[in-house]
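Cross-posting from the modeling subforum.

Setting up a comparison between two proteins and wanted a second pair of eyes on the formatting. Protein 1 (sequence, then structure tokens):
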Amino acid sequence: MKKYGASVILVVILLAAWEIGARIVNYPFILPTPTGILTKLWDLRMDLLFKHLPATLSIVVIGLLISVVLGVLLAVWMNWSPLIERAFYPLIIASQMIPTIAIAPVFVLWFGYSIWSKVIVTVLITFFPITVSTFDGLRSTNKELKELMLTMGATKKDIFFKLNIPSALPHFYSGLKVAVTFSIIGAAIGEWLGAQAGLGYFSRRMMTQFDAAGVFAPIVILSALGILFFIIVVGFEKRSLKWRKTE
């Protein structure tokens, strides 16, 4: 806990400054106080937690699973074949040049208000860090160790599972930690532009009612969800990389 003491103190100071500033300005429909947001969150807890949170959570989980599977498979394929790398790597980079907020309405047009329009937005955002990080990890394999294993009679399968994967795992987890935070953003953007349920949808609905505290309430849950997913990934990373000496 001492490790994060400074962060906790800074957050408390910022919240206190926000509370005092919002009370001085006294325009709750524009700048609600943190206590007002928490009160609104408590008042809306049943609707947010049991209707809108599951909708957002399903989008995040499905989008992340698809991104992990496709991202890892494509990274392995590009590492295996230089031709595939030259064909796909520029396309992966180009996919991030398209503003998500601009292309998301197209997915809503194609798939309607179903879950899949939001899932595709989430995949579009989270696919990139997983693929690139895993690919860089596979390429960082120690060539001297690879040559040593070959001289000792190791097969390509042995090199892949005993050398390439351990080398790529730290990079994969780095990309995944970025992806889990982006997944919350992707789900919220998708719901904001077209949905019938979800935390992003609820925030947009509160905005049309000029309820600033209601806009912030689902944002608090989204932030907590992102932190929770990040902690889960860190936990998996520590358990699967016990061999790696870290500070």
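Protein 2 (same layout):
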Amino acid sequence: MAAPSIVWFRDDLRLADNPALRAALDRDEPVVGLYLLDEDSPGMRPLGGAAKWWLHHSLTSLGEDLAAKGATLVLRRGAASDVLPAFVADTGAGAVFWNRRYSRPERDIDAGLKASLREDGVTVESFAASLLFEPWTVKTGAGKPFSVYSPFWRACLSLPSPRAPLPEPREVAGFSGRVDSDDLDDWELLPTSPDWAGGLRERWTPGEAAAKRRLKEFIADDLGGYDRSRDEPASGSTSMLSPRLRWGELSPYQVWTAAVDEGNPRRFLSELGWREFAWHTLFHNPDLATVNLRREFDAFPWPRLNPTHLEAWQKGETGVAMVDAGMKELWVSGWMHNRVRMVTASFLIKNLLIDWRRGEEWFWDCLVDADAANNPFSWQWVAGSGADAAPYFRVFNPELQAEKFDPKREYIRTWAPEHVSGDAPEPIVDLKESRKAALEAYEEVKRAPR
């Protein structure tokens, strides 16, 4: 029996523009796909609830797509350093291919496996597929990582243009040997008691085919007006591609190429650049989710946690219209408009004086697009403690934000209608007084040694 090639799928749940899959096909041996749910290796962060829901359905879709091409997706669970070598032995594989990951725990896992498998005579190769510009290739003139977005993105754009996407294979020659696979339902990724995912099912269809449709729709219908209405949460003009990129149902190369072919949508491309910058920052700062990037913020005098305020924020019961609308959209749909993400985060940190890490953890659990870079990076940006951060004295006034970006209250009416009907609760804090308290606390950060 021929020694098959293993394609280890991770955050790249697609067949098109998948360099690891292409390398396996080029080897001209049978191919077996593997997805490994690893929550056991050191440093691996368990997925949040909404992310698990998406993963279940995206894996279902990928398995069906591979089967239609002639191959199988095998599911295994456990520490990758144990499970992957065992799977290589089970199949007698002669090669393993994967697309690179960039968080520190994952990089350590991959480096160890690459070295040990090669020592055993197995061909192992990895590829760039999840970022347009790999983090170590973008440096300042002094050879250091960037800490400010604009020069970072200019440096990216001075590099060779991103490659063209690879086509989807017409067929994938499957492995005929017997290989045991976990049952996806046994992983219990879907909520059952209670089943809170009704809003997710209503809004989303995970999988590569749906991702391609959404990209095509966005380019045709919304890209032209993106600059004008991207900040209006009721406009529906945002791409809604973030979970597709997070799970790799689309690659950034596909999105980049589709947008560029339509013209030169600089503003939209810069959003891809912001995603690149988040991963660049995480690559060079592995503890981004727990440690202030600007260490002087360690001196911020967070008061004792008020659990009532935190719960009101989580449930969308703060009495502040745009905050409540955003938090309810998040809970129901697993997603939130980016402008509203900034408003809700600012309210938690700067009006309620609750540590940004509490908000990051809640979004990690509730967002279908939460990933290891963008989620903590964005929270630190709002907090003022991160890269290219908003200055701490910039406090988003949620009432003014609603007036500017939801003037007809369409978004608020959709997600928090009690604020339109007059049945909303009283605000849990005074916006003016709480902003003043935040600025007073910030004075201690300014006095901290740098």
